Amino acid sequence: MAKMTYIKAITNGLDQVLQDDPKTLIFGEDVGKNGGVFRTTEGLQDKYGEDRVFDTPLAESGILGMSIGLALTGWRPIPEIQFMGFTMEAVDSIGGQMSRNRFRFSGDVSMPITIRTPFGGGTHTAELHGDSLENLFVGIPGLRVVTPANPYDAKGMVISAVENNDPVLFMENLKLYRSMKDEVPDGHYTVPLDKANVVREGSDITVVAYSAEVNEALKVADKLEKENISVEVIDLRSLSPIDDETIFASIDKTHKVVIAQEAQKMAGAGAKVAADIAENDIMSLDAPIGRVAAPDSIFPFAMAENYWLPNADDIEAKVREILNY
Amino acid sequence: MAAKNKHVVDFAKIKSTMSDPYDKPVQVIDETGKIVNQELFDRFSDDELVTLMEKMVWERALHEQTMNFSRQGRLGFYAPTYGEEASEMGIAHAMKKQDYLFPAYRDLPQLIQHGATVKEGYLWSKGHYQAYDYVRRGVRAFIPQIIIGAQYVQSAGAALGIKKNGEKDTIAYTFTGDGGTSQGDFYEGINFASSFQAPEVFFVQNNGWAISVPRKTQTAAKTLAQKGVASGVPGVQVDGMDILATYLVAKDARDFAVAGNGPALVETLTYRFGAHSSAGDDPSRYRTKEEEKPWFDRDPLIRLRKVLTDKKLWDQDKEDKLVAQYKDEFKEAMKDAEAAPKQKVSDFLKHTFEVPTPDVAADIKKFEAKESK
């Protein structure tokens, strides 16, 4: 057990899977000698050699297309796409190809590919570096889309993702990389890919969030506790599929829900959660479903990020609105 | 002042010479049936010559019978292979069972030569999951790719996988057309395979047309073979209407790749005699009979038939019998395809994830109940 940042926890998890399974391969742009532009793969090439951890030519479709061929020939690829915005170059490989192969071959062919990619706003990056593009990918059958919100989950989930025999889009939050430290166990452990996590128990209202918004929701829970308002916070962890069971169990208790996400509101995981509640558990609620999300504009210019991204204040306002309904 | 205006680089000269030596197609027999390279021709035994002819006759018969089925409304999407028999069978003949094939949609004949069945080809066209049963039998082939160019990046990964597995005498090979060379994935595929010096042969079957768009619109490059140069991949053109030349070049390219030299690129010069697909494409909208005529004269069967007939290895009666025999087999294959079981949505759902997600599991139950009625 050691205190570890979110990024080190991912490095630690990758180290573990490289050690456990000789068929795992890490590759992408700058992941080798340089250890990734964020140092997520730092030290891994030295430890496991250039056959296992290597740089590729600079082409995202090539990287993910290659992953498919490697998987077909018995390898377990862990490609990195340097920033999530760059996945746009490889949408066919993800949605048109790897996610369809189990279906195409009636279960005879697995694509155990974990696509790691950083995303999320608040770090004032260049365009298409910080966008939350999960809304695009949660609509692809056969693809799991997951994102950890803390270092413990980051390690356990990256190990689960690599060990899973289906393609997993593993989204790493840029802002959390170095802003969070947590106790992270040594060695092998897993965190399930499709189980939401009740990170804080409460009885008055449920806030369903994921990634950096989980921390924003926890800030709100701390603050409202002083007013004797008890907020339950659920970390989705998995954006596709959604763990409705955990969400329904919570709202059956609190009867109120706010769904918070950093991505635009127009489609995606938050909308799916709202729809699932509306379809299956609406009678548990005694107030409308509340939503906190970014506005439906293009992800903003860096200098405007701070007043575009939804934060704790936005969640607090929405929670009060729903509580007072 | 004059010196100041003098060009530092003679771009015109570079442009005029950069296709060399990529525009001298290899040929063994010309369209009149004349042997133009006796040394290469003599490498073939009589048996091999007959085998190659039989394979082309098989592919031509497959095309004719398949078009019949298509006209009867018994098939779905089908991309005619008429005219490309030398290119497709010449290459197929040079490959080995242990090689990984990444076909595109016009490459069903090569896929069948590699181990798929005609029945599976028909099921692919009709749209049935049993089309891919060949994978279950251990045939090393991926799906007939629909997305133009996707097979290039995927096969580069398979070639790297072969190299990492340490498999000897094994390559990945893939096909696209002239239009496919315009895709980004075309370049990414050949460049990745080159960067990793992976054992692969990339084939471009230049049949002149990407649906209605002619080869010249795709690129101002003089040849498609030379597209390899930029990524360090040697490219060559071959007369794709000459099965002997195509076979020899494909074999050399394969030998080069298995020897650890990295990938090779082969452009076969051929022609799509028919429409793009069986679904309503009408070539008379975009090309003339005058353009088609010389290509029909280059029909790959005509020239080898003449050579073999002169050598008393072939006659019309033998060919007619073969065609009838093949077509009977294709009719049987179609009967088998038509007897394939009704597909179940619950099966599709079961094959969406290895472990069904809660939503998928609920759908499986729902459809199983529906399907049991």
UniProtKB/TrEMBL annotation, chain A:
Query: What cofactor requirement does the entry state?
Result: thiamine diphosphate
Q: Can the keyword Disulfide bond be found in this entry's annotation?
A: no
Pfam families for the chain: Transket_pyr, Transketolase_C
InterPro entries listed in its UniProt record = THDP-binding, Transketo_C/PFOR_II, Transketolase-like_Pyr-bd, Transketolase_C
Annotated signal sequence range: none
Q: Which SUPFAM superfamilies match?
A: Thiamin diphosphate-binding fold (THDP-binding) (SSF52518), TK C-terminal domain-like (SSF52922)
Name the UniProt key words of this record, in alphabetical order.
Oxidoreductase, Thiamine pyrophosphate
Ranges where the Transketolase-like pyrimidine-binding domain occurs: 4-179
Q: Does the keyword Oxidoreductase apply?
A: yes
Example of a GO MF term: oxidoreductase activity
- Which protein are we looking at? 2-oxoisovalerate dehydrogenase subunit beta
Q: Which gene encodes it?
A: pdhB
Automatic annotation (TrEMBL), chain B:
Q: What does this protein do?
A: The pyruvate dehydrogenase complex catalyzes the overall conversion of pyruvate to acetyl-CoA and CO(2). It contains multiple copies of three enzymatic components: pyruvate dehydrogenase (E1), dihydrolipoamide acetyltransferase (E2) and lipoamide dehydrogenase (E3).
Q: Quote the protein name from its UniProt record.
A: Pyruvate dehydrogenase E1 component subunit alpha
Give the record's keywords alphabetically.
Oxidoreductase, Pyruvate, Thiamine pyrophosphate
Q: Does the keyword Oxidoreductase apply?
A: yes
Q: Which Gene3D superfamilies match?
A: 3.40.50.970
Q: What is its EC number?
A: 1.2.4.1
Quaternary structure per UniProt? Heterodimer of an alpha and a beta chain.
SUPFAM superfamilies from the xrefs?
Answer: Thiamin diphosphate-binding fold (THDP-binding)
The answer to keyword Lyase applying to this record is no
UniProt enzyme class: oxidoreductase
Cofactor(s) annotated in UniProt? thiamine diphosphate
